[in-house]
Amino acid sequence: MSNNLALKKGLNVPLDGAAAPEVIRRVTPDVVAVKPTDFKGFLPRLLVKEGDAVLAGSPVMAHKQNPEILLTSPVSGTVQQIVRGEKRKLLAVLVKASGKQEAVDFGAKAPATDADVRALLLKSGLWGALIQRPYGVMADPSLTPKAIFVSSFSTAPLAPNEDFVLGDALGDIQAGADALGKIAPVHVSIRRENSASTPFHKLENVTLHEVSGPHPAGNVGVQISHISPIMKGETVWTVSLLHLAAIGHLINTGKLELTRKVAVTGPAATHNAYVQCLPGTPVSEITHVMPEVRVIGGDALTGETLGKDGYLGFFQNQLTLLHEGYEREWFGWAKPFRPKVHSSSWCYFSWLTPSKKYQMDTNLHGGPRAFVETKCFEYVTPMDIFPIYLIKACLAGDIEKMEQFGIYEVLPEDLALCDYVDPSKNEIQAIIQKGIDLMIKEMA
Q: What is the DSSP pairing of strand 131-133 with strand 90-97?
């Protein structure tokens, strides 16, 4: 087990539009959405109906197969609407905020045992913050992982600065780490470049790891692969620093508080800064969206398209706004000089200006085509796997090959850069997710 990781492979995507370290607005939403679709593996059963009054922390829905797992309301108010999609699939519960935040009192007391921690997280709705690997599904309360991993930084394009976002929540983060430590050993990774200045190096009762390198060095999956690789039959849990702070706040105050600083980023954003709001807040209340702009919940590589009428997700603390790339470029790749285009290889002259940021859009500059076997995937994947063979195994639906080439170690986000550098324009993350879904179906 290494406490110092120096990763060489990867790529920092030079996207323009980072958020300035300032909170420009605090949003008190009129309506908040609780979305079961944010939680992979969660099968919702409604516990409320339209017109019911709820408090912050009141249960809204439960897992059909594990009724002890609850999703709770982040605000106090009244259930305004049950939103359903095709085949009556439950998409969201809309809660109209009362204006005065009232919360369920879970008791401000540090849990003494593993069972106490689990019970508190299940009752409060924060159990959904725990992600189980392999497969990236909601953690199973009946299992005990070999370890719990937290990454205190992100290297994704325009990612929020965690020191700015959560630097003042060290007490809550410590309380959350102490609680989760009663379930399994907790590992926290910090960025080596600022390991002395980040407040998170002061965390106690955890194993700290210093990590350096380009994206995806900040991905918790990449860190796990170097610290304690997941073998067949093993289970680990991960939790974001944001939700670790929420767990600690719940322990310290007895109240569910999910308010967060959301980074509004991207070249199409009208004001690149932070907005304080709750998960489930309408995008239209967080930022103004111009026509022909794609709103992404999360970063540009792995985020979810929300649309201007969407709602911020439970796991999201970033919005990325990109112009829709409808225009076709004269001569395209055949141009000898393209100063506005970034290349991950030496095809253009972007390598001469490594610090330049680019006004990127959603244009693919081409369409999917036959797989071209190059080493470009290996250059951006700092894990002990063969990505090209894993991708082909997922395409073929070959479970034995998927196991052989590392399906237990990855989630789509860990191979997001393969999407970016792929000359064949294939949706690598979708292919990996298809393989994971097959594993869940066949190995359950």
A: unpaired
Separation in Å, CA 351 to CA 23, 79, 354, 355, 368: 34, 53, 6, 9, 26
The encoded tokens of residue 191 equal 């960025």
Q: Considering only CA atoms, which of 334, 333, 298 is closest in space to residue 319?
A: 298
Give every CB contact of residue 71 below 8 A, 6+ residues apart in sequence. 34, 36, 39, 42, 44, 59, 60, 61, 62, 125, 128
Indicate the DSSP class of residue 103: B
Query: In a 3-state reduction of DSSP, which class is residue 165?
Result: helix
- pLDDT tens for the chain, residues 1 to 444: 458 899 999 999 999 999 999 999 999 999 999 999 999 999 999 999 999 999 999 999 999 999 999 999 999 999 999 999 999 999 999 999 998 899 999 999 999 999 999 999 999 999 999 999 999 999 999 999 999 999 999 999 999 999 999 999 999 999 999 999 999 999 999 999 999 999 999 999 999 999 999 999 999 999 999 999 999 999 999 999 999 999 999 999 999 999 999 999 999 999 999 999 999 999 999 999 999 999 999 999 999 999 889 999 999 999 999 999 877 777 666 666 777 788 887 777 777 788 899 999 998 877 888 887 788 999 999 999 999 999 999 999 999 999 999 999 999 999 999 999 998 889 999 999 999 999 999 986
Collapsing DSSP to helix, strand or coil, 140 comes out as coil
User: Closest Cα partner for 177 from 166, 191, 193, 164?
Assistant: 166
Token pair 């090209």 in the structure block, residue: 388
Rounded CA-CA distance 291/294 in Å is: 9
373 vs 358: CA distance, rounded Å: 28
Q: Beta strands 148-151 and 236-238: pairing type? A: parallel
CA dist 359 and 296 (Å) reads 16
Residues 6 or more apart whose Cβ sits within 8 Å of residue 205: 177, 178, 181, 186
Reading the block at residue 376, the tokens are 């470009």
The type of residue at 166 is L
Kindly list the distances between the CA atom of residue 290 and the CA atoms of 269, 294, 322, 359, in Å, as whole numbers in the listed order: 8, 9, 10, 16
Q: How many CA atoms, within 13 angstroms, populate the side-chain half-sphere of residue 370? A: 1
CB 104 within 8 A of CB 57: yes
Whole-model pTM: value is: 0.95
